[in-house]
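Recall the central idea of this unit: under ordinary conditions, the amino acid sequence of a chain determines the structure it adopts. In this exercise we apply that idea directly, starting from the sequence alone.
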Amino acid sequence: MKLFSRNWFLVGLLAVVTTSIAQDKASSTPTENSYLKLCVSSLAYQALRMPTNIRQLWITIQYESAIRPNGKTTYALVGEYVGSQSNSTVLAFRPQFRYYPGPSRFNGFFAGAYPSYTYRNHTAYDGQLIGAGMVTGYQYLIRNRIPIEFNVYQGWETGQVRDYSTGITIEGNKSYWKGLIELNIGLPVRKRK
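Accordingly, the structure predicted from this sequence is:
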């Protein structure tokens, strides 16, 4: 059942990203770029801080595009995968709505909100969690093409889980605050005419 849930989550995430990219390509409205970004802070954390006996893969991918041609709002589809040799898996999906108050969209300070869904199959507990949160950050475009983004997330998640941390399996509700700091680097997906 766990493998089934994970596969459907990945299929759903791929479908959403593919649909968004296809809608962007079908649009003939002139706008700025859409960007595909990879979180490099999670990769650096793995290389520098993780003990060598814990092999863990932590990948965060983000797709950001404009909502309106000349507006200051964008949407970002964020997918996260964390897996390790101990068969622990975390899958998360956070679609975001962002607002850039400065003169240029995709360049400068932004703030936004997001709902979240997290599937955890972890050594401490497993289950499915839903939540919401806020994100703020700064994005800089190198040569008006390559985005470098620093952001901070703060969110809350809750859901039904099985807790193994005490040595006894306990089923119940779990709620917690979640904070993330990310550094993302990306490339433009395409430039509309």
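The beta strands are 34-39, 56-66, 73-84, 89-99, 108-121, 125-142, 146-163, 170-190.
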